[in-house]
Amino acid sequence: MSDPVSADFSVRMQLIVDVLAQTLDRAVLLDDEELTPITHSRQLGELDDVRVHSVLQRETRAEVKAALFEFGIGTADSAVWIPAFPDYNLMPRFCVPVRSASERFGYLWIIAPEGSLSEHGQQLAKRAGADLLAILDRRNAALRAEESAQQGLLMRLIAAEDPGQAQGVVAELHARAMAEPQHVIQVFRFEPDADSAGNPVDRSLALRLRLTATDRTRRWYTLAGSPTTILAVSRADAGPVATAEIVAPAVRAGYGTRPAIGASGVPLPITQAALGFRQASLALTLAEIGVGSAQVADWSALGSWRSLALLGEAYGPDRLGELVHPGIVTLIEQNREDLLRTLETYLANGGDVRRTSEAMYLHRSTLYYRLERLTEALDSDLSDGETRFELMLGLRLARLARLYRPTSTTV
């Protein structure tokens, strides 16, 4: 569904470009700040390969883009003549930067072989650039206002734990063509790198555009912040596409890092977005302490860790350390990661010596020695089922309390 706000401004921009092209009898093109075409006129006058490629492929070739920016268009404050670039079959053109004092919106191009654009024609092009600036400025302000309204609705959606309140928010989303009442939702959360360059809101919006371009079976929304939130909205019968396999590469590409990501799991009715948000938040907590081996921690697949995450949420991470077996606390304080890893692997393998030694690449005699040391250090019988449960619980609580995190195991 087209955005009526963008559509209205597009009509106005197209009219300015068409009138200028007809008046000058020259091909006119309006690019955005990255030299991606916004709109263009009919093919009047002589054309070159750069113009044809730009119109047909909706892009400017990378080498041409680099040459133009090296020439200085990125810093130009006023109209400038671009000479011919024979290596790229680019004919001379008149370039009018469309920019305000603080923001660059794009570039207006008029192809003019051998500089064949009169002074009057140049003034008309500059006037058209000023008119386009006014339209683009108003368009961006309208889009920012619309984006702000959408963000407010989405924030209310993920906070609406009451079913009636959630249905009311969904009705507002439906009125804005953002979602349908029968849609389902998945929520993802990750912590952006604190040292990442760029405005967080701009990067979040760029992530949303990247996700939308990658997968059009869903409606993607992002909420900037620490953590940043991704909402994937789709029909209940959208198909078996693994959403996490779309999200993880997009986050890596957009942020240049590979952060842990918490996922809400199986799609939920959109009226349960608050539950999905909570599940994704808890899954992120588990992902950050190294639970599982995948970048994305899926709440649906975290097993008994989910109960511990809920316990940690209710009890408070600062107090979880009080519940940890004192022998485990001592090993942590002594920095005995070798014994802690051995204990965790041994318990995860049900006390099976063979499987534990294989998992840790240890000779059995070395493993038996470590188990003896553990028995002494913990003053516990490792063959007792209740003791094993207490120790496994203690290790996991220590991880949740951020007292301990194994560096080379995924159990």
From TrEMBL:
The PucR C-terminal helix-turn-helix domain covers which part of the protein? 339-397
Which InterPro entries does the entry mention? CdaR-like_regulators, PucR_C-HTH_dom, PucR_C-HTH_sf
The domain of life is Bacteria
Return the Pfam families for the record: HTH_30
Enumerate the PANTHER family for this protein. Answer: CARBOHYDRATE DIACID REGULATOR, DNA-BINDING TRANSCRIPTIONAL ACTIVATOR ADER
Name of the protein this chain belongs to: PucR C-terminal helix-turn-helix domain-containing protein
Organism the protein comes from: Mycolicibacterium setense
